[in-house]
Amino acid sequence: MSEHILFLTGKLAEKQLHNILEKMQPDFTYTVHQLGLKVAALMTTDMVARRLHDTFGADRIILPGRCRGDIAALSAHLNVPVLRGPEELKDLPQYFGKKAQAYDLSRYQVKIFAEITDAPNLSVAQVLERAAYYRHNGADVIDLGCLPSTPFPQMEELIHALKAAGFRVSIDSLVDEDLLRGGQAGADYLLSLHESSLWIADEVAATPILIPEHHDDLASLDRAIAMMQAKNKPFIVDPILDPLHFGFTRSLARYHEVRTRHPGIEMMLGVGNITELTHADTVGMNALLLGICSELDINHILATEVSRHACRAIKEADVARRIMFAAKQQATLPKHIHPGLMTTHEIAPFPYSPEEIRELAGAITDPSFRIQTSAEGLHIFNRDGLYSATDPFALYPHLNVGQDGGHAFYLGVELARAEIAWQLGKRFTQDQALTWGCATDQAEATVDLHTFKPAGTTLPKK
């Protein structure tokens, strides 16, 4: 027997909800019931408790996505499970698809080595602060970078401090003395050893990252791998990722070749050579590079945040590794898993067409302005009319708020957001900040739907 779902809505959205459900052809039966209020977004759980006298035999009740109040209490009152639906009706098909396929993003395979490239120039306090930031954004290992011809007298002190604070630590240098000192001080990893410096691995307990003697010298890398395998010691192999136009494609082939030759070994990819040395947004680069890691079973990356344009690289890599792991586990494409990597665009930026917006505007009978976007531009409307443009300044003469500074300011902010969303292809929702995925620290919704939104500063009249 199929599930029966009761959808609660308002007068303005009732017809559209019927149309969407009919087109969905869902595998459940349903009832659409409007509660006698015009705007569904103004519904509260208290209203539902007062007005809903029949649950129509429903196994579940779906409320509008912005319905405020305690749905657990409402569920107990009605003795039926109550859930919030999506904020936009047009997202209903995707909403039910998400419910059918929930992805676990708590798991990942790739460890992130976050490099502090200028460690010799920093104090213990500065390194601990940077390490805490990297760990907050997803780093598993803090990599202390040594600088050429630069003394590093506080290396041991830094390693001891990081270890005492619970960090795993690696030392990054091509100078034998630095690597030996780091290993003796308790570093967990050494970046990087090659065939000629492999003796250091016999002197310390740290796990070495092995690189070729020269970039294309895979024979030397094979010999180093064989030596470590003969000693039955752990190691990680990094065939070296080169920047674009300086051997990038050839180096990708090198990674594939090493994986083919050595199916079971641990490998590392230095993603910073691409994210730092390419002036383009790093989120897409990290998605692709972590996808390569997923395909080649590369379980370690070395990431950096030196250039300002790469200031979110660690966090982006963390989100990307989780998405790629989930996709690989489910044998699916890395699509519709999590929106964190969609920073400047969205899958469905314009849920409503101009025709649908015009139909909604024609039903409005109050003076409050609604703002929506479509593929054609910005739309603002109330009972006095609908106005559309691609430039917010073109809308101002129609708004009649010249004598109401607070209202004008509010509409200016909202129209500016709408213009940015329209230009980039992002979702705009009035009274809510634009979402930027993992590009900001406020990627997750901060609205508490258990509480009621206080009156804004533009509402009171003196």
| Computed structural class | alpha/beta
Query: Approximately what portion of the residues adopt beta-strand conformation?
Result: 15-25%
Q: How many alpha or pi helices?
A: 15
Question: How many domains would you count in the coordinates?
Answer: 3
The CATH class of the largest domain: Alpha Beta
Q: What is the string of helix and strand elements?
A: EHEHEHEHEHEHEHEEHEHEHHEHHEEEHH
Low-confidence stretches: 455-462
Q: What is the third-level CATH name, the topology of the largest domain?
A: TIM Barrel
The Rg value, from CA coordinates, equals 28 Å
Distance between the ends: 59 Å
Helix content: 25-40%
Mean of residue pLDDT values? 92
CATH architecture of the largest domain: Alpha-Beta Barrel
Shape: elongated
Quaternary structure of the protein: single chain
CATH superfamily of the largest domain: Dihydropteroate synthase-like
Strand order of the largest sheet: 5-6-7-8-9-10-11-12
Number of strands: 15
Main beta sheet? 8 strands, parallel, barrel
